[in-house]
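Table S2 (continued). Query chain:
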Amino acid sequence: MADLPPVGHKVTYTRTVMEDDVIAFAKVSGDDQPLHLDATFGERTRFKRRIAHGMLSAGFISTALGTRLAPDAVVVYLSQQLRFRLPVGIGDTITATAEVTAVDAEKRILTLKTDCTNQDGATVISGEASVLIDPLAPA
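Corresponding output:
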């Protein structure tokens, strides 16, 4: 059975948000709001530019959890609380960080502090997740 990561264990995932990412996310999610796709529209908003979907950056947290936290097990999302603090633009480099804050070894459930920061170190998303670490069955 795969060991559980201990309290304090951190994982990260970094990605630069590209034009193609925003277009693909709009297509897959169905969220084609002009704020994300139309530069002229974006200039007329409080942001003065197009911004990426908040859930696109939140997806980077999912990547950190699903691919980095317990690579020899299956990580199953149970919950995710998010607070969107700053907009993310095309060309911003986002680092998602997940840090284990509590471990329920009997239930194999972890609680994690989850944050996304931009290239300037500013927090764009903060939150908390709960995941189940499910061991793989023997091959």
